[in-house]
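Supplementary Methods S3. Complex input for the flavin-adenine dinucleotide-bound model.
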Amino acid sequence: MKGILIYAEVESGRVHPVAFELLGKAREIGEKISGQVWSIILGHEIKDLASELIQYGADKVFVYDHPTLREFDVIRYKEILVDFVKKFNPEIFLIGATPLGRSLAPRVAAALRTGLTADCIDLRIDENGDLIQIRPAFTGNILAHIKTKSRPIMATVRYRVMEMPEKDLSRSGEIIEMDVPEIGETGLKMLGEVEERRVNLAEADIIVAGGRGLKSKDDLKMLEELASLLGGVVGVSRPLVDEGWISKDHQVGFSGNTVKPKLYIACGISGSPQHLAGMRDSEIIVAINVDPSAPIFRYADYGVVGDLYEVLPKLIKILKNAKRSDNP
Amino acid sequence: MEIIVLIKQVPDIEKVRFDAEKGRIDRSSAPAETNPFDLNALEAAIQLKEKLGGSITVLSMGPKQAESSLRDALARGADKAILLTDGRFAGADTLATAYTLATAIKKLGRFDLIICGEKTVDGDTGQVGPEVAEFLGIPHVAYVSEIREVHQDKLLLISDMGDKYLVEVKLPALITVTKDLNTPRLPSLRDVLKARKKEIEVWNADALSDYGDLDGFGVKGSKTMVVKVVIPSEKGRKGIIFRGEDAAEKLLEVLRENRLVN
Ligand SMILES: Cc1cc2nc3c(=O)[nH]c(=O)nc-3n(C[C@H](O)[C@H](O)[C@H](O)COP(=O)(O)OP(=O)(O)OC[C@H]3O[C@@H](n4cnc5c(N)ncnc54)[C@H](O)[C@@H]3O)c2cc1C
Ligand SMILES: Nc1ncnc2c1ncn2[C@@H]1O[C@H](COP(=O)(O)O)[C@@H](O)[C@H]1O
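Predicted complex, serialized as structure tokens:
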């Protein structure tokens, strides 16, 4: 039986949902290559999380629970994953393309001397039964289809590109508590979190984003107001972060966050390749820009050619009026 | 402190053209530049050297033209530059690239710190840094957005993983840095002229044969293959444009129809 191994990242005491998406994909792949879905989870006091992985599609969950695994130490984690792969020989090994995953996966791949495809947005089995890994390259301007010669086939996969499977409370599977090997000094000391992110754009369904079309920091309030009326959050292009108007967590793009909301409203953003790299896969894109030739319009479902200082206040006013008539 | 900075020459992404019909990247359409994140890596090295002394070696694998990026790095403050260039290095995936760079670093000998960019604008993986660290058997810290403290034998860093973490790492180590770490300075004209006369060492595959396995380089050492390149056709965006007085109303109307707005 070929094993398809999914790494389950623990984030603030929960399983990062990208692991559930990967379990769904793994089941689909498993049917085509007659494979079994395994999941591996590392941390401390995490035993309760294992059953959830079964409910989302794992047949077997391998649990490494130990106080030394409470914080992410890339070397410690790598040692365990490498040890596991050598013992159980999975055919495919998928890891969420979170910052943690993208730091950990290449270390594991290099230790195993196997190929690793970064930041995939789709995985398919072709007519030969080979896994095709699809990923953006060249700042999102191309999609490369990649095959791997070595085993396990390793890939990191973006969050929110695969469908979230239904949780099935009646699914059964096996939970295996693993012995945690002794690992000495790693050269790393994890001294804890110093700053929590203020927004999580990756999880937002609606993003109202502003760019250099904004004239001052104060004008971000307009975006905030519109975002809150729509039940969304504020995103920005990089120049606004560079200006120090807003924290980096709000930045969309190649050197910021990759987002895929249901609705992305770009206000005063030109649509540079680096910005597009972070938001071009949004479901509906709206652009508001004075310049009809701005590239962003080529990627937009709906565009308003106009001054954001006229359009946004109008949108806010209409939405506020609608709210008021809803709750008299 | 002995520092090695890994830099890659990449096409200027604003100018490079993609042929959607043929699924081709026309690299010749764009001028080459140093990967922007690698300039942050180099700037970090220069600031560390200013504090602690020592020397900076820049190392790149690529075609002969990549010399211009190395020369620019010399002008900015690197002391020594090495270019790994050979047909046998060509066609490398991240694993083979990292293996080749790590082998060259073994040949270089002693170092305290290796600094990489967060990722490249063309390869766009961010994998090469951690893979190099693994091949050398040293710890790494990714997404470094701040260097808090520098000691002879360790660094205190902020790693930006969405939330920010404080990490202490013992040297020798490798770090990958984000754009937030610093603002790269421009070289002065005087330094540019001085750098013209500096030598760039060029190493081929044979130069590395005492330190690694030639089968680990280039296409031979690569485990992944690009079977196809697709230029994403913009997925049927509607491209409906509103103008004039009632544009905002019309926009809200379609958003309501799409059930995005109540
Ligand atoms: C390595 C690297 C990484 C990068 N990473 C990112 C990234 O992650 N994210 C990112 O966003 N950028 C990134 N950039 C920067 C990117 O290249 C662009 O410079 C940036 O995206 C431009 O931001 P903008 O669209 O807000 O500004 P501009 O390009 O200046 O566009 C402003 C737009 O506002 C319009 N406008 C002006 N006034 C009004 C008004 N009153 N009403 C309506 N419209 C108006 C203008 O017509 C124009 O189209 C990166 C660059 C590099 C080199
Ligand atoms: N060919 C290369 N030569 C030197 N350094 C490289 C090369 N490729 C990648 N790097 C380094 O590894 C980092 C990550 O690259 P990548 O994994 O391609 O996104 C870059 O920012 C460089 O510091």
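The radius of gyration of chain B is 22 Å. The first strand of chain B starts at residue 2 and ends at 6.
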